[in-house]
Write a structure and sequence with these properties.
- There is one protein chain.
- This protein is α+β, with helices and mostly antiparallel strands.
- It is built from 6 helices and 3 strands; from the N terminus they run H-H-H-H-H-E-E-H-E.
- The protein has a 3-stranded antiparallel beta sheet.
- A hairpin with a 3-residue loop joins strand 1 and strand 2.
- Helix 3 crosses helix 4.
- The N and C termini lie far apart (about 55 Å).
């Protein structure tokens, strides 16, 4: 006999290990969708991103589907789409820019450090 969805859901919620594994997979899927959406919004194919990053299309697919990605990899990916990566901590009354990463190609053009700089810039809400 088939188990109901509610029964399966309740078992997962009761098991912290299973719940954590599912939450991680959900986060991975959300990140993959966000990266693919950004790429599609820029009207760029995986092959074009691969060419810009000097990697294979399979590597671009791996980046889009990887759950835990290095900030430098993400910055290069975003740079291949024509953007730059900024990381902010958002609090109730302020935003603090933690890192402003510039893709490797932008570094060559602008002389800005690739690894980013600690901006320490805060803005009040």
């Amino acid at each position: 006999m088939a188990k109901s969805f509610n029964t399966i859901r309740d078992k997962v919620k009761a098991d912290p290990t299973r719940a954590a594994r599912i939450a991680e997979k959900k986060h991975t899927m959300e990140l993959a969708l966000a990266l693919a959406d950004a790429r599609e919004a820029a009207a760029v194919s995986q092959r074009e991103v691969a060419d810009r990053l000097d990697v294979t299309q399979a590597n671009v697919s791996r980046i889009e589907n990887q759950g835990d990605i290095h900030l430098s990899t993400l910055a290069n990916y975003v740079g291949a789409l024509g953007g730059r990566l900024e990381v902010e901590a958002v609090f109730k009354d302020q935003r603090v820019t933690l890192v402003n990463l510039v893709a490797a190609d932008d570094k060559k053009r602008s002389g800005t450090p690739r690894k980013g700089r600690r901006a320490g810039r805060t803005t009040r809400s």
